[in-house]
Amino acid sequence: MGYLLYSLTFLTLITGTLLYLNRARWLPAFQDSVAHLQDTVRFPGSDYLYSRLAPAGSFEDDIEAGLSSSTFDLAGNVADGDSRAGLDDGAKREILNIMKKRRLKFDEARKVYMEQRFRENGIGADGRPRDPKFVSFS
């Protein structure tokens, strides 16, 4: 019985090492099959785990990714035939990450993203600079 356990452990270590060393050959095919499986089968809760951004980037793709709402409507851009590339890719990734991690809707995630950007650039919540030398005449 002991020899069987040691043999299986040794075989598992050898197989794992060989798979790791040759991962450049088999990993792309495995990733393609998993991506195809994700496209055809819907797993429960997968909406919060992973969603693919379209590499081309257009307003239609942004709407499909959930980056539109009644207050930030992209349907007008699509209806007018806007040929621009869509929203900024970096901002899209950040907003989608916020939506997934905090489980927020698009408008709330966009607000959190903008507050983070304001904080990074030294702008207060009221929209005024936090620079102590700033003088305002109102």
TrEMBL record:
InterPro entries found in the cross-reference section: DUF2015
Which keywords annotate this record? Signal
Keyword Signal attributed = yes
Family stated for the protein in its record: Belongs to the UPF0357 family.
Q: What is this protein called?
A: Uncharacterized protein
